Amino acid sequence: MLRRILALLMVVATVVPAQANTSRIKDLIDVEGIRDNQLIGYGLVVGLNGTGDTLNNSPFTRQSIQSMMERLGVNTRGMNLRTANVAAVMVTANLPPFSTQGTRIDVKVSAMGDARSLQGGELLVTPLVGADGEVYAVGQGAVAIAGFQAEGAAARITRGVPTVGRVSNGGIVEREVNFAINRMASIRLALRNPDLTTARRIASAINDFIGAPTAEPTDPGTVNLKVPARYEGNIVALLTEIEQLRVQPDSAAKVIIDEASGIIVMGKDVRVSTVAVAQGNLTVTISERPQVSQPNALAGGRTVVTPNTSISTTEDGKRFALVREGVSLQELVDGLNALGIGPRDLIAILQAIKAAGALQAEIEVL
């Protein structure tokens, strides 16, 4: 009995790590045609408590108000409009794939003029168009904002961004995007992180499942899938089965550097050749201590301020640290941390190691 338990534990120990390194194909690819479509529109938000656009500074808001009022039968041409309760906004939304007429979507509004806040505003009917110029949805509703603004006679406080808001379920789909996925004879699977090895592994996993060479990687970012005869007219069932297959994704060794924030991300396959690294900081300190020369009262002179500058330099040098060839990512990080350096200096060291040809990875600077 004890031997059986030990054998079972050994099997679990070997299977779990293998499963932990694999991912579903669903998490690695996008199916051609199943995508969002971006919509945009121009509208007005009304009902603001004096925090809208200043019409003298926002002529587009004035023109929009006049055009809207004329469509409603009110003539405001030549009149002096002084309202501050209206703001011109850009309205954006994402149209989900296969959305049917009448489906509701969220819309986002952003002030265009000098409005101070959209709090309490109401978005008027706004057509939302796609890249082809056709209207696919119409947005309207109460605007909810995450920030706020409060002010008095001599002080103002602002939290968040009160000039950007959201209308939950404020868009109604009016036009559908025609895409008959069940009529397709072949499908293209687009890898979210293009890689030759990953593309071939995905194709192999699909072919093993189908039992026929139906999938073929055409480039690092695309796998072409021919629909088998038994799945003709039922591609949804085919994709449902394929999405659950598990493969082990591969990626090139990369070091990602964001110099603006000092963030460094290194992949697990990063390796270095044998290299010695030393780092030192040169600090120059300049101090000014002006001296005042005060003459004797009976000497008839004048008070003079003479400069007194003191300059000192210090160099904080770190001893050489040896990074051996073929070390793992953890050993590389430990070796660089042993120098006691910060992220900014680490960026310069990694770039210097790459320039010396000792870093076996690609450095990508954001």
From TrEMBL:
Subunit structure comment from the entry: The basal body constitutes a major portion of the flagellar organelle and consists of four rings (L,P,S, and M) mounted on a central rod.
Function per UniProt: Assembles around the rod to form the L-ring and probably protects the motor/basal body from shearing forces during rotation.
Similarity field: Belongs to the FlgI family.
The UniProt record lists the keyword Signal: yes
Signal peptide feature range: 1-20
Protein name in UniProt: Flagellar P-ring protein
InterPro entries documented for this protein: Flag_FlgI (IPR001782)
Locations listed in the record: Bacterial flagellum basal body
Keywords: Bacterial flagellum, Cell projection, Cilium, Flagellum, Periplasm, Signal
Organism, as annotated: Phreatobacter aquaticus
Pfam family, one: FlgI
One cellular component (GO) term of this entry: bacterial-type flagellum basal body, distal rod, P ring
MF term (GO), any: structural molecule activity
Primary location: other
Domain of life: Bacteria
GO biological process, one term: bacterial-type flagellum-dependent cell motility
